[in-house]
Write a structure and sequence with these properties.
253 residues, mainly alpha, 10 helices, 79% helix, 0% strand, globular
Length: 253
């Protein structure tokens, strides 16, 4: 990571606490709800994505295992649908990874801000992506694979499909298993391409994510028993404002 001011390191640490919080609380969003803030601090996705990827590997596998144990031996993961969906997502995923490694940072940052802006509007209007037909399922999964390859922010697209095919009891842990597989592919690509994995910064960023993870466990329990629409509207408003600032800064600077 580049030399930064103290307030930038503080902002990055707080954002990774937030990332762990929403990842565990919602079952998704560790990247999509954190990257816009991180890119305002340092406009280079390849600095942060390896760190987020490692966190995803650890916490997605941990949460899936905890869910499996809670079921007392019964699998909390829908392996059948997971396998079918991966067959559709894998090629677009690899194309997205190639784009991430080859496109300029400014282009990738703008793409990320635009995607997050689209998600944010859906949260604000309480109209998330929905899929009701098989051909729409395939389109969303292919787009999700591509977006996951570029930036790990495919959750709303993927959930639009998974929520109609996977039972609510198995949805979160099935998503965690999917994130784990997709991130393994991405990390392998990073290693092959010689991308700096920022391992030294894991020493202080992983504890930040762990704090967020512990707080997120409480959020998950709360959202299971309450109407979460207001929470998503506030979240969408903040993300939209952040993304618009990022887009304007990219073009002005």
């Amino acid at each position: 990571m580049f030399d930064l001011e103290w307030w930038q390191y503080l902002a990055i640490g707080l954002t990774f606490i937030w990332s762990g919080f929403v990842r565990t609380g919602l079952g998704f969003g560790g990247a999509v709800l954190a990257l816009p803030f991180l890119l305002l601090v340092l406009d280079d996705p390849l600095v942060f994505l390896p760190v987020i990827s490692i966190h995803l590997l650890v916490f997605s596998s941990w949460n899936a295992w905890q869910g499996h144990r809670a079921k007392q031996g019964e699998s909390s993961i829908d392996w059948s649908y997971l396998g079918r969906s991966l067959k559709i997502m894998i090629i677009p995923k690899l194309i997205g990874v190639f784009g991430l490694l080859t496109l300029p940072n400014e282009v990738m940052s703008t793409i990320i801000f635009l995607i997050v802006s689209a998600y944010s509007v859906g949260y604000i209007l309480n109209k998330p992506f929905k899929s009701s037909r098989p051909w729409m399922d395939n389109i969303f999964l292919m787009l999700g694979g591509y977006v996951s390859g570029t930036s790990l922010i495919a959750a709303p697209l993927v959930i639009a499909v998974y929520s109609t095919h996977v039972s609510r009891e198995k949805l979160r842990d099935t998503l965690f298993a999917l994130w784990f597989i997709l991130v393994v592919i991405k990390m392998g690509s990073f290693v092959i391409a010689g991308v700096d994995l920022q391992l030294i910064h894991q020493l202080w960023l992983f504890p930040c994510a762990l704090i967020g993870h512990m707080l997120g466990v409480r959020l998950h329990s709360y959202l299971q028993n309450t109407d979460s629409h207001k929470f998503y509207r506030i979240l969408g408003s903040v993300l939209l404002a952040t993304s618009l600032v990022g887009i304007v800064r990219t073009f002005v600077v």
